[in-house]
Amino acid sequence: MLPRVGPWHFVGRADELRRIVASATSGERHGLILSGTAGIGKTRLLREAVSVLPPERYAVWTATASIAVAGLPFGGLAQVLPGDQPAGMSPAGLLRWAVDALHRQAAGRQIVLAIDDAHLLDPSSAALVYLVARDAHATVLGTLRTGEQVPLPVRALWTDDLVDHDELAPLSAGDTRALLVEMLGGPVDTTSADRLWRLSAGNPLLLRELVIAASTSDELTRPYGVWRWTGEFDLAPRLTDLIDARIGDLSDDVRAVIELVAFGEPIGLSLLIEASGEEPVEIAEERGLIRVAASDRRHHVRLAHPLYGEVVRQRCPVTRAMRLKARLATLVEGAGIRRRDDLLRVAEWRLDSGTATDPVPLLEAGAQAFSRYNMHLGARLARAALDIGGGFDAADLLAAVLMFMDRSEEALPVLDSVRDEIDSDQRRSRWLVVRGLVSYWGLGRESAVDDIARDAATVSDPGFRARVHSFEAIMRMHRLETAEACRLSQSIVDSPGAPASARALAQCVLAHADAVRGQLAASARLTDQVQADAPLWRAEMPYLQLALELARGTRLAIAGDLAGIDAVVADEFADLADAGDFRLGSGYLSVVRAQSARLRGRSAEALRGSLQACAVLAGSRVFAGLAHAERAYAAALLGDADEAKAAMADSDQTQRPGMAVLYPWREQARAWVFACGGDVEQAIRALVTLVERLRQDGFAAHEVLVLHDLVRLGCATLAIEWPSGASQAQTVADRLAELACAVDGPVAALMARHAAAAGDGAELLTVADAFAELGLLLFAAEAAAMAVVRLRAATGAERSEASARLGDLLACCDALRTPALRAARPALTEREHQIARLAAAGVASKQIADQLFLSTRTIENHLQRVYGKLGVTNRSELAHALRALPET
């Protein structure tokens, strides 16, 4: 299905829009002129701004100047001025007549003159605009195209301090994402949106053309309703015409400059001058085709717009492109490979130009690309190195990269091809680790755990054997052999000869185990240590970052540490994973973002985030089941039973036994799917079963969350009959109180307090406030809803306070649909709903009666019934209470 790409509703530019409106309405200034490049959105912004001005107060006239009428007196304002222009008047008289005509038409209202493309105004129109700006009862708003010659009267508007003049900046990344959603009619994954933002440089016109080009070449897909772009597109004629108009005709020497920069950006200024000569470089800069930026003591050159490079590269003949890349490689090698990116760039140029003959630099560059999570480049360089004699090292690197590109079937033959080259413990340990990685996570073979445990004995060196055992440990952790996983990991951490990578992976296992057991402080110390040691292990084992993020993300989600989650998803790894198409990394972080949004009560945002995770992880054997479970949970909170059920089915289908450690999140989601579908009893049974399993596994922190789910379903006093051999039966509240002493952090204690307060309305409101202080608005709203139910028989003031508190909390959340919130929402008839909404909006009873064709007495009787049902006493309290009601 092709996307729709316009027309679209206006999005973004909120600050700019407010500023233009303020310029027209504040009376402090006489206007605002905005400059900007073609397609940046000046015209639309101006149109949106004047459309909100009330016509009873402002006489708004809009005009668009044009080159077609630039030679006619008042041609630019022909749409504004009366058609009966008097004959025989002097130029000064005509100007006075024009001003008087505008005032007559304004009929006492404030004049707002909005001129688009004011740089094209004819001299008479430009002079009139200047005179209008000097009028105390008039405002001038306008747009100019950057770089164009501006008529002197228009320039005098800001040089004489009559109006403000600013440059309209490109769209931000956030506004670009919002515009893409509007263009495409659905959510866009973060990586695709960021790529399109960078390539369009925040220009809405170019963004539209990019979307059209990508959609017509089938490079836009929509898995799970989320648009994804491959990064490829064919240059459509409209797009190339736009770029050609900006680039213009080029001489051969200037074109050579542009081509070198297109293939080499950022390129050092001195290298560019050495290759092309000083004069062509100066001409290219003067024409605005390249940008020179200082970085430390060097100067680097880029093209003025990212799309210039796309056009130049796609149009450049293959043989010339190869020659240019070989030239760039020689230039950088001659100057010395000093910057971190130089190794990667030279290797890629050598590969593209057919001049790569040594596998060593290709291998070094491939390892660097992998360490920066640039998966496609890493695979390409590793395969090229293997093809020209890179041997074992190239095969080892290529197999690892292929696994993380969801191409594990290709990885095993690569590994098998170099089995005969295993001639040391170091190589054997590497081969066993990568083979285990591919077999267990890539191909889903649980037997890989026993294989790697057996084969570790063939490695005699203790340090290299520790590396193999570290992978055995994390495999065992993932399939719930927690005790053995921790034993192995602790032995590695205690071994002085264990390499940094093995020790870090073992610490990740221990950190994960500590998190699910409730030892959150110890878990945090371990992950902090692994992160601090990253320079010691990243080059050798960059994918260890994924184990770190799983341990850290599990702890933060369990702890309800929203600030911590925000810090993780804003970290460098998140950007690298998205940019490099490291799907396991970016997909898992999307799940963590969704969990954070869910806890904040932003269930629609959680659903979007989990859908993005599902799209990114399509085909993955690792986190896909978790992503679909989070999608099911978010849909359940929104009350979408069909979507929740479908998502849970997808989770069951994509979940792999090798990731059994994720079962608490999945089974929690399943219970809420039952609740959303109306089967609360089944949800309770599922949660009780899960509590028993978690206690058996020793996952105390997860158990706290599930017990709290039972509290949210009204089961704080439910007795849990533990399996034989365990302690006697406990209520949910009793067990939570017991665990609150064993699980770190404030959330466990607060959840226990929530359970203890289940019958006390005032205490429930206090609990709601405590949850809100932590940002956990979902739990806060539900606690307040329980307070509303408990206080229905209380005095009017207490009921009103609870209802108002719930309304305030729900105003910060999405349209949540949980049993606790439904119980707090009294059933109003459709008529009562209608009357209540009007009354809360301040409409008098007599006006409501006239509008609904009822008597005033009937309206008052209805309102009294509404007050009783909502627990309020007057209209001022009614608006708060209505926030807790479902939309109609």
Automatic annotation (TrEMBL):
One of its GO terms (molecular function) is adenylate cyclase activity. GO terms for biological process: regulation of DNA-templated transcription. Residues 821-886 form the HTH luxR-type domain. It comes from the Bacteria. InterPro entries: AAA_16, P-loop_NTPase, Sig_transdc_resp-reg_C-effctor, Tscrpt_reg_LuxR_C, WH-like_DNA-bd_sf. This is Transcriptional regulator. Keywords: ATP-binding, Nucleotide-binding. GO terms for cellular component: cytoplasm. Pfam families: AAA_16, GerE.
